[in-house]
Structure prediction request, 68 residues.
Amino acid sequence: MSVKDNGGGIPQKILDKIFQPFFTTKPTGQGTGLGLSLAYDIVKAHGGELKVETKEGEGSEFIIQLPV
Prediction:
């Protein structure tokens, strides 16, 4: 399953941090930084993978792969 957007993409300098708990690019008080971390942990707990493909200026695609 995948989810794709046409936003600005994720800058390479933060790409390795996006699945870390409490990481957010939002101002203080506007977001916990737990969404992607929780999604990553849930997918991993089911034996799957959560990957991201992104290109600055073109958007991002999050891909969930689960075993059959």
